[in-house]
Every structure is written in C-alpha cells, then in structure tokens.
Amino acid sequence: MVKKEMIAMLLAGGQGSRLGVLTRKVAKPAVSFGGKYRIIDFPLSNCIDSGIDTVGVLTQYQPLRLNTHIGIGIPWDLDRNVGGVTVLPPYEKSINSEWYTGTANAIYQNLDYMESFNPEYVLILSGDHIYKMDYEVMLDFHKKNKAEVTIAVMPVPIEEAKRFGIVITDENRKITEFEEKPENPHSNLASMGIYIFNWKTLKEALIAQAEQPALDFGKHVIPYCHGNNAPIYAYEFNGYWKDVGTLHSYWEANMELIDIIPEFNLYEEYWKIYTKSDALTPQYISAESKVERTIIGEGAEIYGEVYSSIIGCNVTIGKGTVVRDSIIMNDTVIGDGAKINKTIIAENACVGNGVVTGVGEEVDNETDPNIYNHGLVCIGEKTTVPNNVSIGKNSVIYGKTEPSDYQGGKLASGRTLIKEGEKA
C-alpha cells in the first residue's frame, strides 16, 4: 500500500444556481474565469504549488466539461503513476446507489479511495473559490498545535459575518464555539470551507454520522468532532479570497484582474496558476482597433474597441463594436457596430451586428431578481442574439432568439428571455 502524508479531496459537484444561465449546462467549477482559466484551476494549482500530488475531484452536476478540462491532470503536473488527479463521480454500488447529498456525504462515499493511500492527513477543498494559498503552511500549523481538525478562517467585516459559518477561538486559536450564519455574531472569523483532518478522525466522524441526511461538514462532521473533544484549531488566512458564487461577485472578481496593480496577481513567477491550454493562434488586434485595461485570450481577433474587459480565447469582436466593463467567454462572436456594456456573455454565443446591451433604467429582474442584478446583462452559452436589438439592464437571454422575440427591437430592463425547450 502506498502511503501519502496528505491527500486533497476537491468538492466540484456544485450546480452554482446563483450564477444563473452560466451554469445551466456546466458545473460551477468549470465556468471560465480571467479569460483563459476555469474556476477549478485555482485550487488545483494551489495543490501542486503546495507539493500535494494526490487529488480526488468529486463531480456530480453537469460534469462533462469539467472532466474534459481536467483530463489526466497534465497541466497541473498531476499525471502520476501513483496518486495524481482522479475524477470521482457518484457510482453504482451493489446495494443502494445514491447521488452525493451533501459535502461530507460526497467524501464519505469515497472512503475506499482515501483508504487506498492510507494518508496521515486529508485536505478538504471547495472547487469554486478564487485564491492562492500554501496548504503546506496550514499543515505545519495543524501539526504544531497537535490538532485533529484545522479550519481555514479569514476575518470578514462584522456586519457581513452573518452570511458565514463563524468560529470563536481562545488566545491560542483553539476553536471553542461555532455559529452557523448567526444573527448576532460573536466573532468575525469566517470559515473558508477548507479543512485539514487527521485521517483517523475524519474516517471515524464520517462513519458515525453516515446516516445524517445531506451529511455536511459545517452542520454535522465538525460539531461531532467538537462534541468528542477533538482539538480543533483555526488557521487564519489574510490573502485574497473570493467566493464567486453570484453573478455580481463573479463579474467583480474578473474586473479586479485588470486593475493597474491587481490585488490578485495572475503573473507571479513563484505561484503559478496552471490550466489546460489548447494550441491556438496568437491574438490579432487590427490597426483600427483600440484596447485599454483588458485581458485578451489566445486566438482572439479584435477589430473594434475594448475597454476594461476580459476577452476569452477565440473571441471575435467586429468592426466599430465597442465593448466596456464586460466578460466575453471563449469562442463567442460579436458582429459589427455593437455596443456591449457591463455584460457577461458565455461561451459559443453569437451576438449580431448593431446590438446594444446595458441600456435604460435599472429594474428588478422579473423572474430571478436575486441572480440578475447590479445592472448586469447576462447572455447564456450558445445563445444567438439577432442584429440591431437593444437589451436593458438586469436582463437575461438564453437560447436561439429571433427578431420576433424583441418587441419593437427591444428587450426591456429586468426581462428574462429563455426560449421554450431550453427552460431550467
């Protein structure tokens, strides 16, 4: 039996419903980020940069693009004979087969995989956060304190603390109490959903709690360990960390990449972010085009003007088109003479000539105001938008739309246009 000191289990099964049409056909960790990357590239790169060479990736919702992206782990140097990266979907068992029902249930269903490496420690990660973190430093902290469980935490403004799982610690950072999304928080240390467990502690807790419906780390496993007097410590992280779980936070995190001195730097030599790169032609920026404060992916062709935006790979932007404050994902084509403002356009979309987005007053979205807000326009993947239509703020479009879908050539602010047969 091969023995590994620490293996990582990366939870990447989430649907990410708060990203609206962006995750209709793709798991949240496989959504594009920063032009050429996908969200899962960040925790995977953290693993290899931290010296962790064995990673189980637990997938469930719409896993195809995620599986294709990860492959056998070559971009992250995780194509190993022993260890490496393994995609772990739910599978048929001789008795009751079931989907993963909660974060900890997904880990419980893969006890055999973890057992095969007989690790001393297991690192649990979420596949949908943007950050750089050296897990080796967290492991040193875990060992130094003789902890059985270490939870990565970060300070948040106290007024935001009620959105998180909050931990309360003594002066040595030992956790004395937990509060799950408390109304009146007694601390501002928020759990980041990153845990190091001693393998024996994790295994015992998962088996003991296995019957809990939707078995969850925050609700069941950690309180169980705490109830059994296992020493649990809080490892404080003070770097950049972003949960890109909503359309607005996703848009904001992308826009932060193009700051003059970005808080989150993709260009550091010593802590690289790796991704699967296709062999693409170089970018082409025509003589009459203008580009300012923009990231442009390989294979893109720019004939218009682009300001403060993220442009993915193989994107074409037509003559006379002006793109501002927008995210345009891979393989999308925007025609000539369009004006694209504060818009997220997913992969393989086709936006016609003369289309104008992000116009008019801000009005609450008619179907999902909690998703489509902050004045953003969201256009789903493989969507077609016909020539010369104007699209208001807080609106969403998905599917192959036609001129007759736009009354008087307009989609008013706050409208939802999802073609029949393409419903959620």
Give descriptors for this structure.
nine-stranded mixed sheet, 33 strands, alpha/beta, seven-stranded parallel sheet
Task: Give a description of the structure.
16% of the residues lie in helices and 27% in strands. With 424 residues, it is α/β, with parallel strands linked by helices. Strands 1, 4, 5, 6, 8, 9, 10, 11 and 12 form a nine-stranded mixed beta sheet that branches. A seven-stranded parallel beta sheet has the order 16-19-22-25-28-31-33. A six-stranded parallel beta sheet has the order 14-17-20-23-26-29, with no helix packed on it.
Concise account of the structure shown:
With 424 residues, this protein is α/β, with parallel strands linked by helices. The chain has 8 helices and 33 strands.
List the helices and strands and how they pair.
Blueprint: E1 6-11, E2 32-33, E3 37-38, H1 41-49, E4 54-58, H2 64-70, E5 84-88, H3 103-108, H4 111-115, E6 121-126, E7 129-131, H5 135-144, E8 149-155, E9 165-169, E10 175-180, E11 189-198, H6 199-208, H7 217-227, E12 232-236, E13 241-243, H8 247-256, E14 284-285, E15 290-292, E16 295-296, E17 301-302, E18 305-307, E19 310-311, E20 316-317, E21 322-324, E22 327-328, E23 333-334, E24 339-341, E25 343-345, E26 350-351, E27 356-359, E28 377-379, E29 384-385, E30 390-392, E31 396-398, E32 410-411, E33 416-418
Parallel strand pairs: 1-4, 1-6, 4-5, 8-12, 14-17, 15-18, 16-19, 17-20, 18-21, 19-22, 20-23, 21-24, 22-25, 23-26, 25-28, 26-29, 27-30, 28-31, 30-32, 31-33
Antiparallel strand pairs: 2-3, 6-11, 7-13, 8-11, 9-10, 9-11
Helix pairs in contact: 6-7
